[in-house]
């Protein structure tokens, strides 16, 4: 089985690019561990493939906003709105971009949500209740056809759509070392990344992605 991973953070002209992880290097080992082939495409500069060539699609996080209007982001937003029958897992910026493509509002938060936080996410075997956040905007409306899967004091944290389409505001794909470095780039303190909870969130993230992949098989 092969899945497509669309990266939104590889643009070399973004001011935060130097602080962002190389997603090709980060994603490949994760999916190797999950025994799934993954094809990573840089959505900021590469053509968007036909998603029907893959079992499912993941859309990763973004250093910008779903409201931004760079040509590549507009193309990706339209692509996500067009292929609504394809199984999908949207992560952070991918979660926001799909909601925006379907007409929901994405707005700035009163303050950045960064660090490890508790969250209840039903129906994921092995999920212990920890997630990694690093975002300054959030989805404020429930898009058409979606149901709220998880929320906390900061608002909507996960949505489910028909057709095995899930989106989450947090980062299930990040390994421990990337979480620390990316969090620091957003002003996180050591207190917001306690090692025990970070490791639990990494494990919970793998449980989420594994469960989504199992649904494709």
Automatic annotation (TrEMBL):
<dbReference type="InterPro" id="IPR029062">
    <property type="entry name" value="Class_I_gatase-like"/>
</dbReference>
<dbReference type="InterPro" id="IPR044992">
    <property type="entry name" value="ChyE-like"/>
</dbReference>
<dbReference type="InterPro" id="IPR017926">
    <property type="entry name" value="GATASE"/>
</dbReference>
<feature type="domain" description="Glutamine amidotransferase">
    <location>
        <begin position="26"/>
        <end position="174"/>
    </location>
</feature>
<protein>
    <submittedName>
        <fullName>GMP synthase</fullName>
    </submittedName>
</protein>
<dbReference type="GO" id="GO:0005829">
    <property type="term" value="C:cytosol"/>
</dbReference>
<dbReference type="Pfam" id="PF00117">
    <property type="entry name" value="GATase"/>
</dbReference>
């Amino acid at each position: 089985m092969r899945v497509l991973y669309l990266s939104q953070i590889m643009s070399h002209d973004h001011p935060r690019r130097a602080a962002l992880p190389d997603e090709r290097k980060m994603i490949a080992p994760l999916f190797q561990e999950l025994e799934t082939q993954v094809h990573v495409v840089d959505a900021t500069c590469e053509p968007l493939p036909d998603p029907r060539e893959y079992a499912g699609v993941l859309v990763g996080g973004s250093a910008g906003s779903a409201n931004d209007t760079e040509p590549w982001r507009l193309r990706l937003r339209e692509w996500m709105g067009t292929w609504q029958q394809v199984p999908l897992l949207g992560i952070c910026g991918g979660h926001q971009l799909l909601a925006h493509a379907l007409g929901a509002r994405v707005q700035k938060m009163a303050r950045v949500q960064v660090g490890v936080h508790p969250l209840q996410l039903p129906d994921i075997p092995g999920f212990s209740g920890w997630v990694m956040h690093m975002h300054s905007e959030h989805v404020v409306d429930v898009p058409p056809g979606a149901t709220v899967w998880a929320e906390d004091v900061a608002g909507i944290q996960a949505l489910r759509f028909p057709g095995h389409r899930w989106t989450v505001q947090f980062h299930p794909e990040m390994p421990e070392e990337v979480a620390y470095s990316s969090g620091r780039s957003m002003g996180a303190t050591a207190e917001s990344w306690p090692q025990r909870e970070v490791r639990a969130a990494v494990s919970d993230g793998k449980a989420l992605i594994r469960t989504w992949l199992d649904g494709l098989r």
